[in-house]
Each structure stands twice: as structure tokens, then as C-alpha cells.
Amino acid sequence: MIVGHGIDLQEIGAVQKAYQKNSRFADKVLTAKELEIFSTLAEKRKIEYLAGRWAAKEAFSKAYGSGIGSLRFQDLEILSNDKGAPIFTKAPFSGNIFISISHSGNFVEASVILEENHDC
């Protein structure tokens, strides 16, 4: 059963400004593993990656019903599966988590659906 659905839309330019203004911005949003990936990317791709992770974590917090205020960005980690699709590898939810991150122009959108596990 679906227990939550969250969507977030971020302007990539706004995330870029925040990153340029505060060199620790990425450290606040990304986990250590996410930062490892981030550090290997070209500058333009870094901003897209950071904006995508920000949007996905915001979308999770909305689906979870808490908002990002009671969750920390560090409580959530998004890596990639063997096909390159984003997956949550760290989250305070034991059920299924479905995630989609889409980039278009200067925007990134993320959608997260939370589904309870039911044993039949």
C-alpha cells in the first residue's frame, strides 16, 4: 500500500548560487559516499547532481510526512543501481522506496513514492 508521495522542483541556477556562495553547501546536502561521486564530476554536472539529490531528499521528506526540518539531508543517501537509476541506500523507512529524478533546462524534478511492505 502506498503511504506517501512527495514531489519537489528545484531551479538548478538557485542551487548553483547557493553552492558558489557557501563552499560547504554540498557537505550539508550530500553524504560521504555521495560526495565521493560529486568530486569526480565536471563542474556543470556537479551542480546538476547536487540539485537532483537536493530535490530527491526534499521529495522523500514530503512523502515521509515530516518535511526536511525533522530529517537531516545526511539521514538520506541516494546512489545508483547497476543500471544507473537512482536508489535510496539510506533512509528512515523500511518499505519500498520508488524514486525518479528528471532534469530539463534549468530545472530538476524529483518524485518519491513510499510503499509499505506487507507479508501475505
Keyword list:
Ribosomal Protein L22, Chain A, globular, two-stranded antiparallel sheet, 5 strands, alpha+beta, 3-stranded antiparallel beta sheet, about 120 residues, about 30% strand
Please outline the helices and strands.
Blueprint: E1 2-11, H1 12-21, H2 25-29, H3 32-39, H4 43-64, E2 77-80, E3 86-90, E4 96-104, E5 107-115
Antiparallel strand pairs: 1-5, 2-3, 4-5
Major sheet attributes: 3 strands, antiparallel
Spatial gap, N to C terminus: 13 Å
CATH class: Alpha Beta
Q: Tell me, briefly, the overall form.
A: globular
Rg of Cα set:
14 Å
- Give me the number of helical elements: 4
Content-based structural category: alpha+beta
Amount of helix: 25-40%
Query: Whole-number average pLDDT?
Result: 94
Second rung of CATH, namely the architecture? Alpha-Beta Complex
Overview of the structural elements:
With 120 residues, this protein is an alpha+beta fold. It has a single domain, classed as 4'-phosphopantetheinyl transferase domain (Ribosomal Protein L22, Chain A, Alpha-Beta Complex). Helix content is 38%, strand content 31%. It has four helices and five strands; from the N terminus they run βααααββββ. Strands 1-5-4 form a three-stranded antiparallel beta sheet. A two-stranded antiparallel sheet has the order 2-3. A hairpin with a 2-residue loop joins strand 4 and strand 5. It starts with a strand and ends in a 5-residue tail after the last strand.
